[in-house]
Write a sequence for this structure.
């Protein structure tokens, strides 16, 4: 073969990607899934910050089980169904949303990136999915509403000071929040060994180890010091403390939150709020049945992402029992372990109305700020569309248990 022919052959197979000058775009190109975003965030965040986001309670068995049970689920696809391009929109609490995905409440979100809850809320609004603000958020109900015209929910911790709860609900109603999610699995704060080992506080205390860690992660440190101080924005100036003084989250929750919650408190909340009430943090079918009997609009099957009582079953394993117990009297949601579009499919096929996702949003935020959250949502929703198409299902309503084989079904 002559030189000219060789050159033509090389030209026919060789192509060169245009050099991308934007570092965020380059970073996100390497993120094919949520685990890649987690890896990138781990490299960019100080270890104490990453462990606060990533860690679970004690031995982290429950946290691992949440994702392991999804990973162990298999599928039974149907073919030649004529389904066509799938429609992933659905109805949640009487509102049509673009997909059965909801941003879960995450406390102290600005620890991952200074844009914090505002960035996640804006990304959710662009995607047409709800965003849930935590009571312990670092942006207030008013700040998040000013930044987002999307559907907003408010997660509610029950302070011992009921006047503070009542005021927060009134502010949320004024700002047009669509639903509240009282969290009921934090009678006391779970022991998170990673935080204990690092002596992690909110906001982080400065010491030799944090100074060294900050120097090793200059992008995060520069973002942190340039931004305004991180506070619990919804309780600024309140007697419960707003994060001005560094405190371990365990001490804060144990001292300020009501550890004697009962169903009467959920009924009290219903009297303070005219919109939907969704109880978050249920594991037992009997508790879900009680919630449905007092007229709540929804329940979230949740073990707090494995951050409270270690050894609780995965939320996927708990889901069928809760669905059976409520028997259609209220909507059922799942929180914990969702990392792929196939996981969303699995939860919906087993009876969930939608899923809540927390850590993946923070991985995206830590990896690339607001654009990282956009990328997280797109990974999950594109995976959902692809999974529906490959299962031969036209829309969300077409999902049913016959399409999935959860790990416990194979053990019978």
């Amino acid at each position: 073969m002559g030189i000219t022919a060789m050159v033509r052959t090389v030209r026919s197979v060789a192509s060169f990607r245009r050099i991308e000058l934007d570092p965020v775009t380059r970073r996100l190109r390497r993120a094919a899934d949520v685990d890649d975003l987690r890896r990138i965030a781990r490299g960019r965040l100080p270890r104490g910050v990453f462990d606060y986001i990533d860690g679970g309670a004690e031995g982290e068995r429950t946290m691992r089980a949440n994702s392991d049970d999804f990973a162990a689920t298999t599928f039974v696809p149907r073919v030649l169904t004529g389904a066509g391009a799938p429609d992933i929109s659905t109805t949640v609490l009487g509102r049509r949303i673009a997909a059965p995905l909801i941003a879960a409440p995450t406390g102290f979100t600005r620890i991952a990136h200074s844009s914090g809850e505002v960035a996640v809320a804006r990304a959710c609004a662009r995607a047409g999915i709800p965003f849930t603000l935590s009571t312990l958020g670092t942006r207030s109900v008013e700040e998040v509403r000013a930044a987002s015209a999307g559907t907003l929910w408010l997660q509610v911790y029950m302070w011992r000071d009921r006047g503070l709860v009542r005021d927060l609900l009134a502010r949320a109603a004024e700002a047009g929040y669509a639903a509240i999610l009282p969290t009921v699995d934090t009678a006391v704060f779970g022991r998170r060994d990673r935080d204990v080992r690092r002596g992690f506080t909110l906001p982080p205390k400065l010491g030799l180890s944090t100074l060294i860690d900050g120097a090793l992660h200059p992008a995060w440190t520069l973002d942190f010091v340039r931004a305004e101080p991180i506070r619990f924005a919804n309780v600024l100036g309140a007697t419960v403390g707003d994060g001005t003084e560094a405190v371990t989250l365990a001490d804060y929750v144990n001292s300020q939150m009501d550890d004697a919650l009962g169903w009467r408190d959920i009924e009290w909340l219903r009297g303070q709020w005219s919109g939907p009430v969704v109880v978050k943090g249920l594991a037992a079918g009997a508790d879900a049945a009680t919630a449905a009997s007092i007229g709540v609009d929804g329940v979230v099957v949740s073990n707090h992402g494995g951050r409270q009582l270690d050894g609780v079953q995965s939320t996927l394993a708990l889901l069928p029992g809760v669905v059976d117990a409520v028997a259609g009297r209220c909507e059922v949601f799942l929180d914990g372990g969702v990392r792929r579009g196939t996981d969303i499919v699995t939860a919906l096929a087993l009876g969930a109305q939608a899923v809540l996702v927390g850590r993946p949003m923070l991985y995206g935020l830590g990896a690339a700020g607001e654009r990282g959250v956009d990328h997280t949502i797109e990974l999950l929703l594109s995976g959902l569309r692809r999974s529906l198409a490959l299962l031969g299902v036209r829309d969300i309503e077409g999902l049913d248990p016959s399409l999935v084989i959860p790990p416990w079904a194979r053990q019978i």
Observations:
- The longest strand covers residues 152-156.
- The chain is about 45% helix and 10% strand.
